[in-house]
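Dear Dr. H.,

I hope your travels went smoothly. While you were away I took the liberty of generating a structure for the chain from your last submission, since the lab meeting agenda had it listed for discussion. I wanted you to have the full record in hand beforehand rather than looking at slides cold. The sequence, exactly as received, is reproduced here:
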Amino acid sequence: MQATSRRIVTNQAGPHQGLEARVARVLQHPWRKPVAEHTREAFGSAARWREARSDMPLILDAGCGVGISTRRLAEAFPDHAVIGVDRSDSRLTREHGPLPDNALLVRADLVDFWRLAFRAGWRPARHYLLYPNPYPKASLLKLRWHGHPVLPFILALGGRLELRSNWRLYLEEFCLALQQATGVEAAVEPHIPGETYLTPFERKYHVSGQPLWRLVAELSPDPALVPAEQGEH
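The corresponding predicted structure, in token form, is as follows:
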């Protein structure tokens, strides 16, 4: 039976007209939101796990959902330490078999986790954002990762950043934000999964006949991207 999934419906004809101003704002203004205590504790546990594997390059699977992508990344990169982060306990606790020894699933607010990772000096070799919520209404630009105050932290971590989406415009906007913030140019390219899908969303969209897209950018760690004072709160 062929899977079905809804296609993205948006009231935008192209990249958001307010994107440049929004990115400029998040790059210039400190973000003073307090870090949630539960995420601080979760990050502490993850940091201890990471420290025990400090000889292994780090992979972050940001917004890992049920953790299938974390498992598959750990299998594909057995010499890396792979940390998957999601805020939903119900997703993370679904049974999908044992975790590889080089993988960890963390329940945490991803926004706060990124900020703590930056402050701790983490430098992921690879960083995946797989099928993030596209927030397709134009009024929701600030909720997309490239319009969110956490954008400077995402980019400042550095590494090989890979995003995948079934909404090309999302990735086109991210490319524009990336170039504005860092000067790095990235291209949106078609993504055709192999026999193994990284996430259930990837499988669902692909089997439904939706085109999939990805962008890959090689980023140098750059703490200067984060406005002064953000790391002090």
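Two observations you may find useful: The beta strands are 58-62, 81-86, 103-107, 126-130, 159-165, 188-190, 213-219. Helices lie at 19-28, 37-51, 68-76, 89-92, 110-119, 151-156, 168-182, 200-207.

With kind regards,
E. W.
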